[in-house]
Design brief:
Blueprint lengths: L1 H10 L17 E3 L15 E2 L9 H11 L6 E8 L2 E8 L3 H11 L3 H7 L9 E2 L3 H15 L27 H5 L8 E4 L4 E4 L19 H5 L7 E3 L4 E3 L8 H15 L3 H13 L4 E2 L19 E3 L1 H12 L3 E2 L2 E2 L3 H8 L1 H4 L12 E2 L2 E3 L3 E2 L5 E2 L6 E5 L3 E6 L4 E7 L1 E5 L18 E5 L14 H15 L2
Parallel strand pairs: 2-4
Antiparallel strand pairs: 1-4, 3-4, 3-20, 5-11, 6-7, 8-9, 10-11, 12-13, 14-15, 15-18, 16-17, 18-19, 19-20, 21-22
Length: about 475
Amino acid sequence: MQMKVVKVLSLLTAVLLLTACGGGEGSASSQTPIDNNTPEPNPYIWEEATPESVGMDSSLISAAFDNAFADGTYTQAALVIKDNKLVYERYRGILRGEVSTMVNSLAADAAVVEETYGTRDRYSLASSWSTGKSFTSVLIAIAIEQGYIKSLQQSASDFIVEWADDERSQISIRNLLDMRSGLDLICFNVRTGQLGPCSDSGAGTGGSLVFSDNQMTACIDRQMAQRGVFHSWFGNIYESGYWVYSNCDTMVLGEILFRATGRDLQSFADINLFSKIGMQAYWWRDFDTNAQVDGNYLAYCCIDATPRDFAKFGQLLMNNGIWDDTQVVPSEYIDLIKNIVVDSVVAERYGGTMSYGLKFWTLLPAIQQDGTIYPPANKLYSTIGFDGQYIIMDFDNNLIVVRNSIYHPSLTITDERRMKINLGDRENTNHVFTLPGGVGLQTDSSFNVGALLYGITQSIDASSQ
C-alpha cells in the first residue's frame, strides 16, 4: 500500500504550491443505524437515537446529507448530535467523478486513487487543518486556569522574549488569539526557499508556512506591519489592530504554551484535554530537528482524529467545558467564546456579518436555494479548516454538526506526522493530503456548508409543525 501511495505522490506536479495552508456511487458508505455490537476502540459518550426522538425529521436530514455527499463534494464524513444524542452520521470514500478529476488533473492512476482514497467509515481518520487553531485556543485557556499564563491580557513578550525590547512587547495573548497582532503576514518564497513577509495577495489563507522545514522561527522574527500603507496581502490600507488571518499568530501561541508549561502541544493536550474526553488525536510537527520536541508542533493546524472524536470537542464546548462532571475548560472561557459576536465582530470585513475571536468563527449568511438567507449573521459558531473541516455549534438548538473532507496522510519519509514537502522530489513528501485542495487539485469542492446546515435546521422546524 505504501508503494502505491508513493505512486500517487510521484504524479503530483508543482500544483502542491497551491496548497497555502492551512455513500454513494462508486464506494461503500455507512449511516445510522449503527451496529452496537461492533467493539469501539474508544468509548463514545452519546446515546445513539433517531432524529425523531429529538424533534427532527429524518427524511429532511437525509436529503441534506445526500447533497453534502454528492459526487464532487469530496465529503468523507458528517454527523449530527442533538441534545447530547448522536442522531445521524454518514461516511464514504472517493466517488467516480472525483476519481476522474484526479486522473485528469494529475495524470494519476485511477486504481491507485481508488485504493488510496477508497472506503471510509467511522474509524477512519480525518484531518483538522485550521480547526486545530481552536484546540490551541482551548489549551491556552487551560494553561491560564493552571497558572502557567496569567491572563489573556498578559504580554506575549513575557514568553517570546525576542519581542520584549521593541513595540512587539505591546502584543497580548488575546491579540494573537484574535488575529490582531499587527505583525507582518508570512509566506513561503519559492525563489529563495525561505519564509518571509508576503509580497502578493496569494496569502488569503493565512500565509503558506507548510513548505518550510522550520515553521516557527520566521513567525517569531517577523516585525510589525507598516501602517497607513497598502499591503497586497491585506488588499487595502492597513492600520494597526485590523483583523488579518495569520497562521503565524497561532504558531507563536504554540511556542508560548511550550515555553510556559515545558510541554509540547501533543503532550499538554494528551494530559489536559484529549485524555479527559476520550479523544485519540495525532498532532503534526514541522521538520526542524532542533526545536521543541524534534520539531515544532503546528499549533495553527493539522490534528488527525476520527470525526466522532472531533465532535467530542464540540460537545465539550456545548457542555460549558464540563465532561463527566469534570470542568475541563473554564466555563468563563466558554462564555468568552460565545461573546465574540459582541467584542470580536470583524467590522472591516464582510460588512460585520461575521465574527472571529479566540480562534473561533461565526458562519457567514448565504442565500439558500429557496431564497432564504441562512444562517443569520453572527449566530452559528464554528471551527473552520482548509478543504471544509468544520465543527459547528448551534448553542440555541443544542446542536453539533461535524463535516470532514476525504483524507489520507502522506507519510513517505517517516511514519511520524512530521510535515516536509520536497518540491523537487515529490516521492518523498510528508503532508496532509485532504481532497481536493490538499493534493493541489485544480477544482473547487461543490460542498456547501450553509446548505447542509439549512437542511438540518429545517428538519427541526418541520418536526415542530
